[in-house]
């Protein structure tokens, strides 16, 4: 049973706790946002309200409510609520928690809900220690992770749990959270006035992260000077509290891959504004410039190809600038290349051609080299067919078979009607000359 000293200690901790911690929702009615995941009628909301929760993995960026949902479960369940942090705990801590849960279930019949924050930080071996306990319902697992559990959590553990994705909060949800913190006794209790421009700056700067919004509000309120006993937070105070906007970005996780995917697709889709925006997101997040340039090198051949052969040269130049110059100056080189690639005519014909050819090589019949194309530096080569030397013909083009038997022209490469590629395809279709002239060099 808690003592008076326990209550006093808890009250003391609450007084010094950050605003974001003090403003954690106490119940589902206070939980803001995530209507698709925990709104009225959803499985998760019913399971929490009816205390019938089964194992679940909460997946989403920081500040979207994963830990808050776990705290709501802790406050509303009849089960014993235990908590382990993957940052500070190991297999021994997990086993102790599981053994205690088993004893509790055997002696009193009480279920145990085990909350594991940052579950993706556990190794595969540590995660394996949970499998039987989750499968046998010795514990009901609530795992929280910022990384995609399909990649970072053991598949057997994922299959025994329900994955619920939480998305970055909308601006409207962040506005609600900030306004509640201004008036709630747990927060600023009406002691702070927030100008509308300052509120907008907090919301925009939060990037969908409630914790960032509340931290910025708290810092700005602490630095603002009271006038007649009233603290007024201005937009300038917000800028001082958060001089650099914090947008979600990680160098190895989902946001990293989502942003670079948007960058590539914007250039492929010929949208220079979008390409520059996603480039800026990667620069702001501290991405390796060589990684960005490598992706552009790939796109130059995969999506532009011979519609504009200069694209590959420009992408390569951007890579060399990223390699030799680095941030911040190489941002200009990367931006120039990104805009060029976005505006260039597009063709994936070369990319498709090599994949079709590889498929035939892997699965088709063994095809012999036509005799007139074979190397002639060997005995018996005089019996090979006649090789017709292209430079001895007008336009340096001559009709002769280059493909092995069973394959016909156009089986792999299908030129588009765009850019340099289209011009060359048209030229080649009209310059062949069947006239016989000397064969020229043998190889």
Care to describe what's here?
With 443 residues, the protein is α/β, with parallel strands linked by helices. It has 4 domains: 34-165, Rossmann fold, CATH 3.40.50; 171-241, Orthogonal Bundle (Helicase, Ruva Protein, domain 3), CATH 1.10.8; 254-343, Zinc Finger, Delta Prime, domain 3, CATH 1.20.272.10; 371-429, post-AAA+ oligomerization domain-like. Helix content is 50%, strand content 8%. The chain has 21 helices and 8 strands. The chain has helices at residues 4-16, 19-22, 35-38, 43-49, 66-76, 91-108, 124-128, 131-135, 149-152, 155-159, 171-183, 196-206, 210-223, 235-241, 254-268, 272-284, 289-304, 310-324, 330-343, 349-363, 419-429; strands at residues 56-59, 80-85, 112-117, 140-145, 162-165, 192-194, 226-227, 230-233. The strands form 2 sheets. The chain has a 5-stranded parallel sheet with strand order 2-3-4-1-5, sandwiched between helices. Helix 6 (91-108) links the parallel strand 2 (80-85) and strand 3 (112-117). Helix 11 (171-183) packs across helix 12 and helix 13 packs across helix 14 (235-241). The radius of gyration is 32 Å and the shape is elongated. The N and C termini lie far apart (93 Å). The model is unreliable at 1-7 and 432-439 (pLDDT under 50).
